[in-house]
Amino acid sequence: MGTAPPGAVRPADSGAPPEPHSRKDRGFLSFLREVPVLIVLAFALALLLKTFVIQAFYIPSGSMEPTLMPGDRVLVEKVLYHPHRGDVIVFQDPHPGAQPDRGVVGGFLHWLSEGLGLARPPDEDFIKRVIGMPGDIVELRRGTLYVNGRVVPEPYLHGPPDTRPYGPVRVPAGSLFVLGDNRLNSNDSRFGLGFVPMSKVVGKAFVIIWPPSRMGWLR
Fold first, then answer.
1. Where are the domains of the chain?
2. Catalytic entry in 14, 63, 78, 204
3. Which member of 50, 113, 128, 213 is catalytic?
4. 176-191 pLDDT, tens digit each
5. What is the Cα–Cα distance from 76 to 67, expressed in whole angstroms?
6. Residue 50 designated active-site
7. Cα separation of 207 and 66, whole Å?
8. Which of 3.90.550.10, 3.30.365.10, 2.30.42.10, 2.10.109.10 would CATH assign to domain 54-96+106-217?
9. 63 is a catalytic site residue
10. Chain segment 63-91, per-residue pLDDT in tens
11. Rounded distance, CA 188 to CA 185, Å?
């Protein structure tokens, strides 16, 4: 093998590693190409979690005081939830207003925007305590709760008792009887809401996550 003639340029070694700056540039460009995919995946995961697993709710009123105070934020579990007496539940309005016909595409886009928190639902959700299950007979006498003729202790109630009588009433099949813990100031199954269909139940509130001074489990 001969030597290269004077003035000849030696070809680059094909086995030489690329320059560090070149590797960094390609890595950064590759990351930029992946960003839109990562954003879409993050939104999809958030939507799935909110729709089927867990969701945060804001408490707007004092109907559940002192268990829940206005401004509290709670987490609600949705997966395979079945209501039980004493649970604090979130449910959709049993008497929703008329909704506009958005068509298939418009309806999907509206559902998507609600799920991502970009649009408010047309009807606000409610949060109350389950008192009567399907078939139960519920009665209130002199501030005391009776279910199926038996006194039900309510240690979560505080303040002056609500002595207004109600019932007895039988809870229909497939429905719940709900009350607010703040009996003197609650729109519940006694007044306005009526019985709540189980199909309207969103899930069970199980923990207060805000404000920090009130963080804790709901029982």
1. 54-96+106-217
2. 63
3. 128
4. 999 999 999 999 999 8
5. 15
6. no
7. 14
8. 2.10.109.10
9. yes
10. 999 999 999 999 999 887 899 999 999 99
11. 9
